[in-house]
Please model this.
Amino acid sequence: MSPRTPWGAYHQIADALRSRVSSGELATGEALPSESALGQEFCVSRTTVRRALAELEAERLIKALPGTGRVVCTEAERKATAGEGPPRAQYRRIAAELRERIDSGELSPGAALPSEAALVRQYGVSRGTARQALSELEGTGLVVAVHGKGRFVQRPEKPTS
Model:
């Protein structure tokens, strides 16, 4: 059995690739390494790599070109449809709105978060998008999942003196 990939590893991979683009290590129009090569580099499965790449594609930082692979988008491509820049992925918007509800106290420690199904109805998104928003909050430690019960606002850790 292979070791498990740490939860949220795809965010770390996406961040590393974002840094390579912003530093110029990966230039506009340049092809990214293959999924297989990235999987070996980061010691994760191709599925994890695909999630990271999907995040960057949703941000319009990269795009897939048939027969070439994924390449870094030009600045014009990044701004093409949103006017001000790449749109925030839907799951990030949902996660940000839930985070605001937690920060404001509307959702207090121990409170249940809306279910995936409720988020699907409320935002008109796919179940995968709703799941990704909730997973992002879990990755920050604000939310804990209780198998068979749902997701709940995490009680803050008491400082030890």
In short: The helical segments are 9-23, 35-42, 46-58, 75-79, 90-103, 116-123, 127-140. Confidence is low (pLDDT under 50) at residues 81-87. Residues 9-79 form a domain with the Arc Repressor Mutant, subunit A fold (CATH 1.10.10.10).
